[in-house]
Amino acid sequence: xxxxxxxxxxxxxxxxxxxxxxxxxxxxxxxxxxxxxxxxxxxxxxxxxxxxxxxxxxxxxxxxxxxxxxxxxxxxxxxxxxxxxxxxxxxxxxxxxxxxxxxxxxxxxxxxxx
Amino acid sequence: xxxxxxxxxxxxxxxxxxxxxxxxxxxxxxxxxxxxxxxxxxxxxxxxxxxxxxxxxxxxxxxxxxxxxxxxxxxxxxxxxxxxxxxxxxxxxxxxxxxxxxxxxxxxxxxxxxxxxx
Lengths: 114, 118
Hints:
The complex is a heterodimer. By secondary structure, chain A is mostly beta strands. Chain A is 0% helix and 48% strand. Chain A is built from no helices and eleven strands. In chain A, the strands form two sheets. In chain A, strands 2, 4, 5, 6, 9, 10 and 11 form a seven-stranded mixed beta sheet that branches. Chain A has a four-stranded antiparallel beta sheet with strand order 1-3-8-7, with no helix packed on it. Chain A starts with a strand and ends with a strand. By secondary structure, chain B is mostly beta strands. Chain B has strands spanning 3-7, 10-14, 19-26, 33-38, 45-50, 56-58, 64-68, 73-78, 87-96, 102-108, 112-117. The radius of gyration of chain B is 14 Å and the shape is globular. The A-B interface holds A 3-4, 31, 33, 40-45, 48, 56, 59, 91, 93, 95, 98-108 and B 4, 9, 32, 34, 36, 41-46, 49, 51, 90, 92, 94, 101-111.
């Protein structure tokens, strides 16, 4: 596609539920990143994929958060037992290669945990 | 460890006036520095980046930034503001892997919202 696509754009869930957020990167981009942006803050790094593997998952806050990229393209961020503190905009970005810092960001998924 | 501080969460200028958005960084290695812009309802997009070449970096839409090591600063400027520049601006510094290569793991500042008045 023309840009990074994230679905859904908005997700409202109840505390304790499971959610999946999807990212479709720019075609041909091998590197994929997930960031989280809380209200009034800058984006915070969660995880980085190079191809199918997670090269750096040091930003995942705890084991309720997990992400996959099984075929090296689309990625899914999974959050178990959601908490109100998980409410934020989840951003996905891709770049052409692992050493390219020029990130192309999607518009994000606004997650609201009630 | 790396960090970025953006001074001023809100900056307001008149159309045609100078834009100055401040960013100071802390890094244990020579930094790679970035400015990203977020327009309403759009994803962040790269304005410019510094990767240890020229200290004055020119970006898109007439913006530029100067890397000053002695001041640990990377302030963003534009000589004449346009209404279309109204957006949120983020300064960021990149991490390095064990081999010293930079990649897209960025530490962002808190952002500065730029308002442009007619």
